[in-house]
Amino acid sequence: MKFKKISSLFLVMTIASTTILTGCSSSKDQDSAAKSDGDSTQLVWYMIGTPQPDQAKVMEEVNKYTKEKIGVTLDLRMVDWGDYGQKMQVITSSGEPFDICFASDYALNAQKGAYLEISDLMDKQGKEMKEVINPLFLEGATINGKLYGVPANKEVGQQMVWAYNQKMAKEAGVDMTNVKSLEDLEPILEKIKAKYPDLKMPMAAGANFVPYMPYDLLLGENLPFGIALEGDTTKIVNIYEQDDVKKTLDTLRRFYQKGFVHPQAATDTDPHEMSVENWFVRKEQYAPGAGEMWSSNAGYEIGYSPMHDPLTINNSVTGSVMSISAASKNPEKAMEFLNLLNTDEYLRNLIDRGIEDVHYKTNEDKTITKTEEAKAYNMPSWALGNVFLTKNFDTDPKDRIEQYEKFNEQAVASPTLGFYVNTEKISTELATISNIVQEFKAPLFTGSVDTNKYLAELNKKLDSAGLDKVMAEIQTQYDAWMADQK
């Protein structure tokens, strides 16, 4: 693979700048130059993740703090994992006003005009945050010279793993150590199914499940346009016409027929929390400390086996972005809040970890221990901004930062890193093609339908929707971009 190494220097820079900011300005008790006249601006904030029982309790504390610091209060609206993308499409298409959102399909929605261009705001209301976030992330989130969101400061590479129940693995006598592909997993699942015949989901998969495929999907999972990460990295392809993808779909079909995937998977949008032991293995995205976090959240030991080496693609630097709505009436205040969230240690941990002495206790070594009440407040930490501000749980590895360094040293850059498709000339075709893919994707990826029949029907519809025109346009843009890289 003709990939380039990503230096871990960015991590050192990130930690240094984060330490400076948190050490100087993020204490809860420090005086603030913020508004204290009682006036405040309420911001509507959409976030991905399961709504939490203690959300209102935590946000009451958040709003006391943000009102004092910057004259802002938050109306946080959590939307469950399986519903988030579609919900935000409806909201943005209708023009419903809101201020901040977790940016699903960041590049595509940015070019549709859903998100505000924020370069000037970053230089003013977001200037402290801009010093903290490594330039690699900001560069990766820049589309045709414009920035439409604030990327989370976290691991630079993306790595998919098989997360699994260690107790079940031991009792069934299976070894997950070197399991990478679906084909590697198949004999394991046969043993699990035999040992636990009543287990609902030997492999957890639902309507939003997407298997790992060695392609950079240039416009997201709801469109078929990809570039191979191995082999010919110069050609745009329709992934649904590729032999290796067909093999993956055939394997998933066998999984469904053997009862490894539950019968309603194609329409199931339940996130199936790890804490419910009705599954054996599931696809997850890894970050340093993830294994410990999964085990802590679930309440039992969860192991993991990597599917591939860490890979830096556009999605890994833009997979967790906060954007300001193009319809926001309060863009400056929205940026002030994002700036505070990414530079203020107290606020970041309050929103993420909950209330001290309620959801966690602080230990002498500065680590924190979850309380019983923590079960009522479990947020998607990776989606909430600068992860280097988060407190370590007592279950986190002591060398969490060193693990980040090693992880990022291992990450390699995709040949497409930095390439974004300009959708202006093909927006109509893309909308039609996206609808077609979404009609077929869940049934195919859960193995719920006959692969040959439905794959042929899918590709026939894609051809009729202008697939060739779109692929030719993307190829022209990619060729020009590659020429500029030389």
Question: For the report, how would you describe the main beta sheet?
Answer: 5 strands, mixed
**Given the helix and strand composition, which structural class is it?**
alpha+beta
Spatial order of the strands forming the largest sheet: 3-2-4-16-7
Q: Please, what is the average pLDDT?
A: 90
Helical content class: 40-55%
Shape annotation: globular
- Beta-strand level of the residues, as a percent range? 5-15%
How far apart are the first and last residues' alpha carbons, in Å?
18 Å
- The radius of gyration computed from the alpha-carbon positions, rounded to a whole number of angstroms, is 22 Å
Describe the oligomeric state of these chains in a short phrase.
single chain
Uncertain spans:
1-37
Count of beta strands: 19
State the helix count. 18
Overall description:
- The protein is of the alpha+beta class and 486 residues long.
- The protein is 42% helix and 15% strand.
- Helix 2 (55-70) links the parallel strand 2 (41-48) and strand 3 (72-79).
- The longest helix is centred in the C-terminal third of the chain and has 19 residues, at 427-445.
- The protein starts with a strand and ends with a helix.
- The relative contact order is 0.18.
- Residues 1-37 have low confidence and may be disordered.
List the helices and strands and how they pair.
Elements: E1 4-5, H1 9-25, E2 41-48, H2 55-70, E3 72-79, H3 84-94, E4 100-102, H4 106-111, H5 119-123, H6 127-132, H7 135-140, E5 142-143, E6 146-147, E7 150-151, E8 160-165, H8 166-172, H9 182-195, E9 201-203, E10 215-217, E11 225-228, E12 237-238, H10 243-257, E13 279-285, H11 290-298, E14 302-306, E15 311-312, H12 314-318, E16 321-324, H13 331-343, H14 345-353, E17 360-362, E18 368-370, H15 400-410, E19 412-413, H16 427-445, H17 451-464, H18 467-485
Parallel strand pairs: 2-3, 2-4, 9-13, 15-19
Antiparallel strand pairs: 1-19, 4-16, 5-6, 7-16, 8-13, 8-14, 10-11, 11-12, 17-18
Helix pairs in contact: 16-17
